[in-house]
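Ops channel
N.P.: pipeline sanity check, posting one input/output pair.
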């Protein structure tokens, strides 16, 4: 599974799965600025390159990753017995019509999504677990690292769009 750690470092993006909680939170906090800088280097962020998503679509995906991550972190504190669900990133992209959404607005919303996520991550209880249907029992550190990996990995994808433009 792509987002399941199978080695200490992601072979594709270099993410360190042993990263501390605080370092992962800081990584996410810096992603909106890094994404904005990457988008600034792309002539048409909405242009798709082959089968890949466009840079703009990746920005909107990051928004959803952080929004869902915030919900998961809040579930740890407020309703852990409920557990968390799986989601299909491609179905969400299609349903929200990422390709039609504004890259400029995406960057604005990404900033607020990252702020909400970092606030939730900072206070998520370390000693509580939630059930995930695929991954089993997850705590705050696992959720934080998974979200940090996704934003790090997709920032690489956005930068890749700049080099293919």
């Amino acid at each position: 599974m792509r987002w399941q750690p199978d080695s200490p470092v992601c072979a594709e993006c270099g993410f360190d799965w042993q990263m501390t909680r605080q370092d992962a939170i800081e990584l996410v906090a810096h992603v909106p600025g890094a994404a904005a800088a990457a988008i600034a280097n792309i002539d048409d962020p909405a242009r798709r390159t082959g089968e890949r998503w466009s840079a703009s679509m990746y920005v909107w995906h990051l928004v959803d990753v952080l929004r869902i991550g915030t919900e998961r972190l809040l579930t740890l504190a407020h309703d852990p017995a409920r557990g968390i669900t799986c989601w299909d990133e491609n179905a969400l992209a299609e349903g929200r019509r990422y390709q039609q959404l504004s890259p400029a607005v995406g960057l604005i919303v990404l900033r607020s999504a990252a702020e909400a996520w970092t606030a939730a991550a900072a206070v998520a209880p370390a000693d509580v677990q939630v059930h995930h249907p695929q991954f089993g029992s997850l705590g705050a550190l696992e959720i934080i690292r998974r979200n940090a990996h996704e934003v790090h990995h997709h920032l690489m994808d956005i930068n890749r769009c700049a080099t293919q433009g």
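N.P.: looks fine end to end. The chain is about 60% helix and 5% strand.
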